[in-house]
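Internal QA ticket QA-208
Title: Verify multi-chain structure generation after dependency bump
Assignee: T.L.

Test input:
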Amino acid sequence: MTDDALVIFTPSGKRGRFPLGTPVLQAARQLGVDLDSVCGGRGICSKCQITPGYGEFPKHGLTVAADALSEWNAVEDRYKRIRGLIDGRRLGCQAKVMGDVVIDVPPESQVHKQVIRKSATDRVIEMDPATRAVYVEVAEPDMHEPSGDFERLAQALKDQWQIEDVEADLTLLRRLQPVLRKGEWKVTVVLNKCNHDARHRLLDIFPGFDERPLLGLAIDLGSTTIAAHLCDLRDGRVLASSGLMNPQIRFGEDLMSRVSYAMMNPGGDVEMTRAVREAMNTLAKALATEAQVPPEQIYETVFVCNPVMHHLLLGIDPVELGQAPFALATSSSLSFPARDLDLTAINPAARTYVLPCIAGHVGADCAAVALSEEPNKSKDMVLVVDVGTNAEILLGNETRVLACSSPTGPAFEGAQISSGQRAAPGAIERVEIDPVTKEPRFRVIGSDLWSDDPGFAEATKATGVTGICGSGIIEVVAEMRAAGILDAGGLIGGPDQVGTARCLPEGRTFSYLLHDASAEGGPRILVTQGDIRAIQLAKSALYAGARLLMDEMGVDTVDRVTLAGAFGAHISPKHAMILGMIPDVPLEKVVSAGNAAGTGARIALCNVAARNQIEEVVRHIHKVETAIEPRFQEHFVNASAIPNAVEPFPNLATVVTLPDVSFNTGGGGDGGRRRRRG
Amino acid sequence: MTDDALVIFTPSGKRGRFPLGTPVLQAARQLGVDLDSVCGGRGICSKCQITPGYGEFPKHGLTVAADALSEWNAVEDRYKRIRGLIDGRRLGCQAKVMGDVVIDVPPESQVHKQVIRKSATDRVIEMDPATRAVYVEVAEPDMHEPSGDFERLAQALKDQWQIEDVEADLTLLRRLQPVLRKGEWKVTVVLNKCNHDARHRLLDIFPGFDERPLLGLAIDLGSTTIAAHLCDLRDGRVLASSGLMNPQIRFGEDLMSRVSYAMMNPGGDVEMTRAVREAMNTLAKALATEAQVPPEQIYETVFVCNPVMHHLLLGIDPVELGQAPFALATSSSLSFPARDLDLTAINPAARTYVLPCIAGHVGADCAAVALSEEPNKSKDMVLVVDVGTNAEILLGNETRVLACSSPTGPAFEGAQISSGQRAAPGAIERVEIDPVTKEPRFRVIGSDLWSDDPGFAEATKATGVTGICGSGIIEVVAEMRAAGILDAGGLIGGPDQVGTARCLPEGRTFSYLLHDASAEGGPRILVTQGDIRAIQLAKSALYAGARLLMDEMGVDTVDRVTLAGAFGAHISPKHAMILGMIPDVPLEKVVSAGNAAGTGARIALCNVAARNQIEEVVRHIHKVETAIEPRFQEHFVNASAIPNAVEPFPNLATVVTLPDVSFNTGGGGDGGRRRRRG
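Actual output:
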């Protein structure tokens, strides 16, 4: 019998010999095994649960005896009785090594737990939040060693947690002495680590061991929609998610109209700032209510947003963003007290982190997409498109990443479309048109049935068919093109040319009747020539931006396309490609990343190292300015054809053959275009 | 003729050879000569004025030709015409080296100007303020290099001033863009350097070159009096000084009664905090008005104060300081936004620095005294006594420094004395008693005449003789002892024992009639047995504290004594030693340092390196706790005799022989003592 023993940890495989009697937690720490502990090994927090393995381990050439660990002790007994402990589990701080042993660290005992992101690409987030709680035992004051209570707390954090450079503001110092005495010099402190230096800010302090969850908000502040996730900062779980209309919409639908509002109305920027900050408080309270947690437990907020929203959130007049050279007041990431944003609904000591902006037109939301989708780590050439009122576009691979933004306008969100509406029950979201009969069928949000399925009317009775949302618009226009109702120039043919009475004359142009409920007092849902023009403008801007980046990169094709944004998640790749919104790639290479900007915000919330990472990546993203680039105009004009006047779409051709129709010789049919362009 | 030349700077003596055409400012910078510049050498600020010397310099073996510098140029001409320039002066950024030359840097052109402190000890303060202004030219925004305006400003500060790690809060970021554009990308920024790391905070920004003075407040926040200096942060000049009664006096005269108030009245600490912060705003406004400067130009405040005032200023309940072990909430120095103290009268971006506390009873005021008097740099053993309601005592030399505080009570400030009053016109401040006739003569504040001088009544008519202030109390008691009116035990003799009708019976004790104006309706000013007892308690506490430090240091004598505090400046060393307030030293070794705590605050305001210095010194000051030290009681009892029951006062004996009288055998005469001690 030797006086030390071999300890092997799984799944890490780390191993070492330790003197008999060494607590498992201590062995783990010495080997750098990722085993959590909040109480520092005092048998209080139970974070260090481990599962010892007994018997034969041929892989390790080891037999583990039943007495390889010290006996189950009173602390574990009490813990199991009061709080519960899975059979076979031990507390790593209590169980001592008494012989060769194999010890498994279950995922929930790892500090750097990995959280599977619930989305198409299934990325994992490693937990390493900026804000965490630790339990610490502070030396009592001593008349002969007259250091202050705060200095002794800081010393204890250094000794027990190797945490140095702790700072506290006056609000915390005011509360310090009573809490230390109430907790009899044992306290749980909430610390926030800055990602730029080694400083830790003391955000809160509770007497004794305190297990209340620390929460964080990841917020994607869009021009139209504010999306937020309330996350548990211990394990990254999303406790509640919510969306809210941006209340600034009353000051202007798109960004430039808000900038104009600020320019035309003295104090207009202050009004908009107040509106969005109030919405943040409303959102925080709503999410906390939904998750049944007190909003004061929210200690961190992470924001991603486009430059105009960025400035309006921070209280900076966005006027410079409305004119060349589109100068940001600041482009770096920001870290400051959340109270500076008047976020009074959450913990008064809460911190805010704002991701860096890439340029005056390419914001922190695009940085968040880059953090989530990591084009900079891609081996193949990936195009990431975040579709919204502005499209943010990233192109690159591990060698180089380019970015631009393109003013698509709100057509993809259903605005500026005659029967357009936001995505809501009753909105048409899927469309098919029979290429022979030219008859449509469709589905609406809120029902799985197609419009020609039996029971459709019954199933949609509550809402009826109310309009067309963004993804529906894309599908109907693409289907019209595929069915020969629309020519490559974007003209709708007349009933005689197309061969269907659904093509109705409207002045000198034609509209396609998608749905007629007027007999029952419902709407007539038409796709007008004007709607087609609006979609052409939007998709041309998007394509031209992507193509400009491809020029800059020196490539004619990309290997894959990622569609991001809440709306991107619902776009049918085939229809997007028929429209020529995105460059031609094999259809299976087009994936949706959902709300990638929101995911990027969550990553930055859950992992402080990711903040350094995206700050570094942003420094190396090369920004291409569409507004001053002549080729952008050229690509834009070419892209107004469906799918494109000059670019071949060979992959698309393997899936669908677009009819070679042309309606622009019929005379007068192009009046719509001439009027719009005139 | 060579293509370089020798440049010698005076008074530094630094020298080097430089290519012909090198601007003098550039040569100075390369040699590390302390030559100021705010505009970075652009001929705007005129801070770099120099005086070239021409002709023979035998000391340097050099003859300077008349054309050793480039010709007077248009920039200098314009500057001289508009702003004025002393004859013989040149602008260092304009004048170029054209031959061997000797260049004098006048004191006002040095960055690290030295300011002579106007006090007995004439210490100098080297200027190196935390807050300063620099002029900087910022690159304009460029669509192809999309960094934010703030990032380009930070880059300019790095390139033009070698200032890195610049931070700005949202308030500043909000103002940044319009100011940069108004100044056409030339701005003056106010920066505050943290003494703990390399960070610079951007406090303010002005378009173009802005010369407005930056101001700072050095505040000695005492229990009774708040003393403040308004200083110009460019050259350290005191623009205005003011004192104000601490409005907290209405909550309790001394510190412990204020702690009691906080303990007995819920929210009492908040009331006191509010009162003192309001007073700070009043004081700031009054000083700015006096100096005829806008209070918004105050960018920094430095506070020194005792621990209770420290906590009440910071908004921390001082309850723990009222009971053993006298734990401070925090003992370190603090640096935070002045707005956290509700200092709304000054610049909203202003910073506050609070010196570190030494212990629960020995505060930042004592640290400031240490910074001003530097016992840690003394070769001989120095005792520094800051006399106030509490006495702070430092003893040491360059090897070791000890500190304690001793509760002297307010007797030295005229409180608890029957005819006592604060130092104000009409108060008796100097006393002599004829040892033969026992007749007194005295002087009052506001007149240079003695009471037996002709014209005294006329000279003091406006105020009359109103009472006795602290220094007068010390003198009259010491003079009574020297004249044999008082015995060593502190008893006043009766008229028969002393031989003067001025000793009046008061119950079973006697009082000495110092002045009687009752015939004219004025006061009778008596020194009662109770007054003597109050002074005995106070001086015993002071002496016992000093003696305890001497014990701890292992010395029986000190080499010199420094009396600090506003009151200390007025104490007569001889009388203090007759009383036995301070240990026996040669009289010429007792000096007054005036308000040393206030001077320490000024030093920390004007020199950021001094902050590190005092923080380091405080870490090495050993604190001795009087409250728990049995020898303190012993020293206290011995010191209640005048001058002392056991300690010899050999130096005092060379100056004055104290009569060997004793009145405590007369029966009943000691009743006063027995009653007080009972």
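Spot checks passed. The domain at 215-360 of chain A is CATH 3.30.420.480 (Nucleotidyltransferase; domain 5).
Status: verified.
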